[in-house]
């Protein structure tokens, strides 16, 4: 049974397929990596306090940002004013903080309940800038970064490398950051409509035991927060879990293809096995710089096959997965030799 905390620790290494199962099926208690809360504020902030802060002009608004010490971290207080262009439009204030940092529990993740216990104190600090304390009823969630940590993660680099090959979000390749010396994948980020929305991190350097620690993080902004009803402070843990899963579903479906029964399912179909051999042969030639001409029909068949089995490339057929299914079929043996 899943341990009810955003920091999932196990006595045994956690396989990739188990991480996918946990995210897809188990009840979740999610961590909050970052939160931004917004609320209407008076049009004229206290000039003395805002004199030395950062000011940014973008399109039809001016945003001032003031960093303030808050417990063990930093609280970012913002004032956004559009009155220069729209005199009747309201001004908005917002506060941003990392609950884990504020609580002093990093590298562990803080829960929603822990974040909400910090909120009255955060609003009290912000009120000195606004000369007004917003009631809880008008506070809305403007951004929410939900996360889970898994430690120790088995084959974490394989997980990250495989994820780096995915293109499930509007066909856009993910951003991959590697250690410049070791070339280990440190993060894989999938781009959303407005900003990076899903990231997998190698957090091993922050592990007290030196174990593989992997973080799965989903960033939700205003449009998705409203869609899932998460812009309200009254949203439940189940609502947050539903949004987390919904964003990760395309990836969860692909991770599951790396389970041993994936190979068994594929090889059970003679037509799929033939297409696999054709696809793998084309891939093997491409690796040595040879790209033979193939018909539009053949290209279409391979494309449909790769949608059905999204990442059935040679490197995905690890020997320990495939050797169980060796047969006298020359096609199957060819795939094993290529891998």
What does this molecule look like?
Residues 318-339 have low confidence and may be disordered. The protein has 339 residues and is of the alpha+beta class. Strands 1, 2, 3, 4, 5, 6, 7, 8, 9, 10, 11 and 12 form a 12-stranded mixed beta sheet that branches. α9 packs parallel to α12 (330-338). Helices cover 37% and strands 27% of the residues. The protein folds into 2 domains: 7-256, no CATH class; 260-338, no CATH class. A hairpin with a 2-residue loop joins β3 (54-58) and β4.
Secondary-structure map with pairings?
Layout: E1 7-14, H1 16-25, E2 31-41, H2 47-50, E3 54-58, E4 61-70, E5 73-81, E6 91-97, H3 99-103, E7 110-111, H4 112-130, E8 140-153, H5 156-164, E9 175-178, E10 185-191, E11 196-202, E12 214-221, H6 222-227, H7 237-255, H8 260-267, H9 270-287, H10 296-308, H11 319-322, H12 330-338
Parallel strand pairs: 1-8
Antiparallel strand pairs: 2-6, 2-7, 2-8, 3-4, 4-5, 5-6, 8-12, 9-10, 10-11, 11-12
Helix pairs in contact: 1-7, 9-12
């Amino acid at each position: 049974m899943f341990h009810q905390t955003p920091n999932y620790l196990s006595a045994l290494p956690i396989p990739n397929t188990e991480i996918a199962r946990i995210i897809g099926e188990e009840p979740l208690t999610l961590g909050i990596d970052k939160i931004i809360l917004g609320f209407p504020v008076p049009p004229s902030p206290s000039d003395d306090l805002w004199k030395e802060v950062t000011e940014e002009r973008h399109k039809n608004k001016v945003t001032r940002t003031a960093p303030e010490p808050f417990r063990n971290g930093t609280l970012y207080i913002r004032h956004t004013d559009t009155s220069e262009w729209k005199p009747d439009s309201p001004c908005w204030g917002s506060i941003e903080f990392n609950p884990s940092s504020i609580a002093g529990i990093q590298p562990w993740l803080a829960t929603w309940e822990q974040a909400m216990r910090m909120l009255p104190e955060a609003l009290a600090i912000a009120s000195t800038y606004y000369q007004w304390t917003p009631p809880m009823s008008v506070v809305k969630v403007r951004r929410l970064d939900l996360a889970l940590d898994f430690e120790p993660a088995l084959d974490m680099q394989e997980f990250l490398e495989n994820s780096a090959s995915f293109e499930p979000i509007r066909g856009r390749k993910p951003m991959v950051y590697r250690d410049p010396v070791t070339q280990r994948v440190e993060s894989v980020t999938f781009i959303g409509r407005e900003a990076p929305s899903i990231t997998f991190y190698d957090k091993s350097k922050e592990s007290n035991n030196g174990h593989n620690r992997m973080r799965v993080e989903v960033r939700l902004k205003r449009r998705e927060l409203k869609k899932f009803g998460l812009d309200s402070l009254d949203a439940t843990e189940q609502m947050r879990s539903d949004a987390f899963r919904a964003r990760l579903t395309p990836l969860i479906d692909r991770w599951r293809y790396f389970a041993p029964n994936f190979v068994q399912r594929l090889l059970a179909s003679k037509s799929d096995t033939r297409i696999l051999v054709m696809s793998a042969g084309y891939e093997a030639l491409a690796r040595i710089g040879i790209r033979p001409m193939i018909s539009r029909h053949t290209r279409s068949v391979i494309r449909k096959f790769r949608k059905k089995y999204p990442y059935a490339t040679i490197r995905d057929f690890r020997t320990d997965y495939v050797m169980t299914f060796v047969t006298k079929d020359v096609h199957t043996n060819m795939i094993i030799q290529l891998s």
